[in-house]
Amino acid sequence: MTGKGRFITIWDLIHVQKEENDETNFPAQQKKTEQKPWLSGSHENKRRSARNQEQKTEGKKKTCRLMSETFTPQERIRKKKDFLFLYKKGNRYRGRYFNLIYLSNDLNFSRMAVVVSKKVGGAVERNTIKRRFRTLFRRNKHIFANPQDIILIVKKEIQGASWQSLKEEYLRSVTSIAPNH
């Protein structure tokens, strides 16, 4: 009901909408739309964009590497049967921060797994240790002339170890098990 006691019907609403949308209210000629400022136009300064492109490419320099420093899924030991086979048949190296179980494989690449017990620390510490060993493996693949399967079993003594001492211990152990380097 409206203020004067009259009911508004659906027909009244349609009539009001029709009056608002009546085409006779629009001018015959419409204004031209202006070009949007973010779109390139004929007035654009071409030198400016070229200069920006040069600056961007200068900062990126490619480094030439002889070996890929990735740790691909095929380079990871994941299957239980592979672990059990290495535990049973593999050779052992006892280091200061970790024990190493290794065995030559028939593949064209070396594989690695890191085992960190809950005795070493919480999840954050264990994941940090795993990440460090994976990095050492990735960066030093060239040491393995013959492909090897390696399992690193981390000891509790690693908790206070610095990156440098961990790196030295890893390189010492890997060079001792890879005689053809």
Explained architecture:
By secondary structure, the protein is an alpha+beta fold. It has a domain at about 80-175: Ribosomal Protein S5, domain 2. Helices cover about 35% and strands about 15% of the residues. It has helices spanning about 10-20, 45-60, 80-90, 125-140, 165-175, and strands at about 90-95, 100-105, 110-115, 150-155. The protein has a four-stranded mixed beta sheet, sandwiched between helices. Helix 4 links the parallel strand 3 and strand 4. The chain is elongated, with a radius of gyration of 35 Å.
Keywords:
alpha+beta, Ribosomal Protein S5, domain 2, 181 residues
- The percent range for helix content is 25-40%
Shape: elongated
What kind of sheet is the major sheet? 4 strands, mixed
Query: For the residues shown, what is the average pLDDT?
Result: 78
Order of SSEs, N→C? HHHEEEHEH
Low-pLDDT sequence parts:
none
Q: Which strands sit side by side, in order, in the main sheet?
A: 1-2-4-3
Topology, element by element:
Elements: H1 10-20, H2 46-59, H3 80-89, E1 91-94, E2 98-104, E3 111-115, H4 123-139, E4 148-154, H5 163-177
Parallel strand pairs: 3-4
Antiparallel strand pairs: 1-2, 2-4
